[in-house]
Amino acid sequence: RMLDEQLVAEGFVEAVTHTLVSEAVAAPFVPAGSALLRTIDDRDGGDTMLRPSILPSLLRVRRHNQGHGAATLRLFEHGSVFHVDDGAHVESNCLGLLMDVEAQDEGLRPLRGVIDRLVHRLRGVDATLTVEPCDTTPWFAPGAALHLDGTPLGHMGVLASAVTTAHHL
Fold it and tell me: Phi and psi of 51, rounded to 5°?
């Protein structure tokens, strides 16, 4: 609840989306060395992949809102993501954030500020968040790995132009 409260205070809107996405939308977000997890039931109109990231779902919401005149938007969602690793189904509970850049010259600083405030609210002021450039997330250009007190926390970055183009953003 504290996480949600802090994100709302930061101007984010919670999204609740479906875990099924199309293969075309899911493919760019598959972790290296992993594969997509397909459902057997295809009644959802072609969306038969369990999402490997929350980002494709948030991008769908962003595109919808863009089509209805929303110039800038901040979205978040808690949810499960899935992939196949060494033949085993892997499910993880994740937080996804999608934040429009309002000033190009600011880069990732506004998002980094949001993440810093989340970390300090949930873990205290002594928590150490490190951000290191990485190239393991091709959907970000540039991308960075986040570590909290030395433990991997996630990734952040500017969405690659191929991703924004594919989502008509």
Answer: -65, 135
Does residue 20 sit in helix, strand or coil?
strand
Rounded distance between C-alpha atoms, residue 57 and residue 129, angstroms: 26
pLDDT digits (tens, 9 = 90+) for 113-155: 999 999 999 999 999 999 999 988 999 998 999 999 999 999 9
Phi, psi of 134 (to 5 degrees): -150, 160
Three-class DSSP labels, 23-78: HHHHHHHCCCCCECEECCCCCCCCCCEECCCCHHHHHHHHHHHHHCCCCCCEEEEE
The position carrying tokens 């875990």 is 19
Encoded tokens for 140: 């970000």
Torsion, Cα 68 58 47 164, to 10 degrees, reads: 80
The amino acid occupying position 102 is: E
* DSSP type of residue 108: T
Burial of 114 (0-12, 13-18, 19+ CB in 10 A): buried
Banded model confidence at residue 107, pLDDT cuts 50, 70, 90: confident
